[in-house]
Amino acid sequence: MGLEPRLPVVPETAARTVRLAVLGTLGLLAVGVGGNWPWLVTEVTRLDPAHRVLIWAGEGTALLWVLWAGLWYGVLGRPPRPTGLGRAGLVWVAVTLGVGMAADVATTALSAYQEAEGKGRAVAAVRAELTDGRTSANGEYAYVSCRFQDRQGAWHDSRIDLQLVGHRPALDVAVRAGQYPIPADVTYDPEWPPRCWIAPAGFDEHQPIYLLSLCGLLFQGMLIVMAVAYRWKPDAAAWFPLEMFVPVWGLLLPLGCGAVGKALLGEF
Fold it and tell me: Which pTM does this prediction carry?
């Protein structure tokens, strides 16, 4: 039996391109997560456990695809197809990306439904207080922890993002001064108490995580079209495995833009 022929190594310029793409992706991940960290912590706290698993499984799998591309093409030097994927390959790419996007659509719709239903059945906590937190650089927002007692007597801990306008004046003043613990009025979803809101809420105060998912879906849709169009090319210019980066870039682009916007406005 003869040995299998050794796969040719990707030229160093091509491998370097993949490595740079992976490093750029990880850099954008760091900027996006770091710049939105207080908001992300609040939103993850509000999600029920099953929904958390769905989100982290999807985004974790997408990130693993990027790391695999970096290892396979950028480190080990394995060659991608020297030309475009061809009709069969493109069908596979379109189907897999489409299935992933459909799963994201379902998760986003579920998140929006749970938020609306939870707010609709929300009831007032018996007692509540803001226990800790900090204000944003511009002093217009606060990221706070809260503790409240439900109508069955149980205590719950959660997090709330506040726009420091439209509440009781004493509350906004106390939050800005850091005078914790601060008595507060809180409503909560009886089916998942960590999903809670300050009462009365400020105008456009809460930005639920499904809004990020919606933006991600828009970017992802555009990137899927770009990836299919790019990989359709029959020439050697279409070797880059763009389809492996699309799911992560679709989320990181709006997340990174949001982080930059918050930094410029002083909302971090």
Answer: 0.84
Q: Is the pLDDT of residue 10 over 60?
A: no
Q: Is residue 148 part of a domain?
A: yes
Burial of residue 102 (number of CB atoms within 10 Å: 0-12, 13-18, 19+)? exposed
One-letter identity of residue 234: P
Note down the domain range covering 187: 121-198
Q: Are residues 18 and 114 in the same domain?
A: yes
Q: For 211-229, what is each residue's pLDDT tens digit?
A: 888 898 899 888 888 887 8
Query: Per the domain annotation, does 45 fall within a domain?
Result: yes
